[in-house]
Q: What sequence folds into this?
């Protein structure tokens, strides 16, 4: 795997070379995955590329405010061939889409998780980045493209959610500098906060109450966990996408170091 400058240059060269690009992220996509995916999609379309954004699961309701979120298709079937496949915010296997058979000649992986074990030569892995959105910002800037309001909103969502609203230890001076530029470019912080943290469906809150009622922890109080059986979904009328950010409540228990 190349150094950052070399790998981003190689990725940009491949993206510019092809005309049809597929972008996919992990199962049960979160704000960082979707924000990064949409920002790169919009940027590549501005370069005249035909871009398909496709995931296994649909966009959760709390992220449907994102620009072009309705362009993301989903399901375990995907037709067509592409010049490049970009897998973002996970290793390729976590898309649960391709079974090792990829519909593109060029394979690109962009991720910030230290657990990623690079499979492809064009893998850009940066565990020091607060979010994949931070890396996507760098990629788009390196392409010479402007950060407009749509891209800014997507990238701000990515960084904001993966840093826990700038509360987690992965919040860095760089993530704050980038976020400031995204705000200057037109990202609306209240729009993000309202949709992600301040506007929940009744069924979601019913599910949360039931989940937290069943929370358990280890004898030393350092590990806490919750289990969500299918029966709770049926009982509350909620779905798996409604569990987004539930782990934050478990993590917030005093003394807990590991939340599951």
A:
């Amino acid at each position: 795997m190349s150094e950052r400058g070399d790998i981003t240059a190689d990725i940009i060269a491949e993206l510019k070379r092809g005309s049809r690009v597929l972008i996919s992220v992990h199962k049960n996509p979160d704000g960082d995955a979707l924000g990064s995916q949409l920002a790169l999609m919009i940027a590549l379309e501005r370069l005249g590329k035909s871009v398909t954004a496709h995931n296994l699961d649909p966009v959760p309701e709390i992220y449907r405010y994102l620009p072009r979120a309705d362009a993301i298709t989903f399901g375990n079937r995907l037709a067509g061939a592409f010049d490049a496949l970009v897998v973002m915010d996970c290793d390729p296997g976590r898309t649960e889409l391709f079974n090792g058979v990829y519909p593109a000649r060029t394979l690109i992986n962009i991720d910030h998780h230290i657990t990623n074990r690079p499979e492809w030569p064009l893998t850009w892995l940066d565990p020091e980045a607060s979010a994949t959105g931070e890396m996507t910002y760098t990629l788009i800037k390196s392409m010479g493209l402007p950060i407009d309001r749509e891209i800014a909103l997507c990238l701000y969502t990515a960084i904001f959610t993966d840093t826990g609203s700038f509360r987690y230890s992965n919040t860095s001076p760089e993530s704050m500098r980038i976020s400031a530029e995204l705000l200057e470019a037109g990202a609306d912080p209240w729009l993000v906060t309202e949709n992600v943290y301040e506007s929940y469906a009744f069924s979601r809150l019913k599910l949360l109450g039931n989940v937290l009622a069943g929370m358990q922890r280890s004898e030393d109080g350092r590990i806490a966990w919750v289990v969500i059986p299918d029966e709770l979904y049926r009982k509350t009328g909620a779905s798996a996408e409604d569990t987004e950010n539930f782990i934050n409540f478990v993590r917030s228990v005093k003394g807990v170091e590991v939340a599951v």
DSSP finds nine helices and nine strands in the chain. Residues 31-45 form the longest helix (15 residues). Strands lie at 20-25, 50-55, 73-74, 82-88, 104-111, 122-125, 216-217, 223-225, 258-259. Residues 110 and 124 are 5 Å apart (CA to CA).
